[in-house]
Amino acid sequence: MNFPICEGPNALIYFQDERYPQTRVMKMPYPEDASGDGPVFCKGETVLVVGASQRRGHLIVEHKNHTLHVPFQFMELKPTLNI
To answer: Source organism's superkingdom (predicted)?
Structure first.
């Protein structure tokens, strides 16, 4: 199901009703600075998205019994085979 969302005075954007969990692939390393002790995701790594974050533009990723709010731009949906 698609839901309309208004962005700006003359734009109409649709997004799909997402289902979770989802398997996604990191498009780039996260976090970009990677200087902390927390989890680091490498480009090409598969991650498990368990839901939408309350933070705008973020998804909740589960990693080693922790949940992280990762910007959706860092990930892409992993292609699935429909047989």
So the answer is: Eukaryota
Whether the predicted model's global pTM rises above the 0.85 cut: no
Structure tokens at 47: 């991650």
Per-residue pLDDT of 52-61, as tens digits, reads: 999 999 999 9
Question: How many residues are recorded in the chain?
Answer: 83
Q: Which of 63, 56, 55 minimizes the C-alpha distance to 21?
A: 63
Strands 66-71 and 58-63: antiparallel
Beta-bridge partners for 66: 63
The CATH class of 22-77 is: mainly beta
72/81 Cα distance (integer angstroms): 22
Please give the full DSSP string across 22-49, using - where no structure is assigned. EEEEESS-BSSS--SSS--BPTT-EEEE
